[in-house]
Design a protein that fits this description.
The structure is a single chain. By secondary structure, the chain is an alpha/beta fold. It has a single domain, classed as CinA-like (Maf protein, Alpha-Beta Complex), CATH 3.90.950.20. 41% of the residues lie in helices and 23% in strands. It has six helices and five strands, in the order H-E-H-E-H-H-H-E-E-E-H. It has a five-stranded mixed β-sheet, with helices on both faces. Helix 1 packs parallel to helix 6. The longest helix has 22 residues. The protein is globular, with a radius of gyration of 15 Å. The two termini are 24 Å apart. The model has no long low-confidence stretch (mean pLDDT 93).
């Protein structure tokens, strides 16, 4: 994500008076750090949750323990719950982006073939067509190649792109 695109995103969020929250597992704050690297981001970034372990996903974002046990932390349902949790628990947030995945070796948690598997959830509190108040959430699955930092960096880029895509849909 280049700096000009970030500046445009922050300006568009300001123009629409939309506020963003993050919920980050594998990126552990990189999305928030990237968004706030742009001057003026404090007007639109509300904050974020660093939820690297399952206990934090449950405690901070209300991701059900049963869901984590049934599907594992790296799953579509958990990314969905993380995005909704961040949206609901962050005062003033209109949009929340959440990421969970395996940046590198899974350490026995999953087959190493899952290295680079990432789920990105994006939730908003408005109907993207009408603008009316209504919670919406979508999740996408990705498989990013490369080493740990490559996967984390591409996750950041794609998560921010999801915010841009959402704004492109909103009238």
């Amino acid at each position: 994500m280049n700096n000009e695109n970030l500046k445009e995103l922050i300006a568009e969020l300001k123009r629409r008076n939309l506020k963003v929250a993050t919920a980050e597992s594998l990126t552990c704050g990189l999305i928030g750090a990237t968004l706030t690297s742009v001057s003026g981001a404090s007007a639109v970034v509300r904050g974020g949750y660093l939820v690297y372990c399952d206990e934090m996903k449950n405690a901070a974002l209300d991701v059900p323990k049963e869901m984590l046990e049934q599907f594992t932390a790296v799953s579509e349902p958990v990314a969905r719950a993380m995005a909704l949790g961040a949206l609901r628990k962050t005062p003033g947030a209109d949009i929340a982006v959440a990421v969970t995945g395996y940046a590198g070796s899974t350490g026995g948690l999953a087959p190493d073939a899952d290295k680079g598997l990432v789920y990105i959830g994006i939730a908003c509190n408005f109907n993207v067509v009408s603008g009316e108040k209504q919670e919406n959430v979508s999740v996408s699955e990705h498989r990013f190649p490369g080493e740990r930092e490559d996967v984390r960096n591409e996750t950041v880029n794609q998560a921010i792109a999801k915010i841009q895509d959402l704004l492109a849909l909103k009238m």
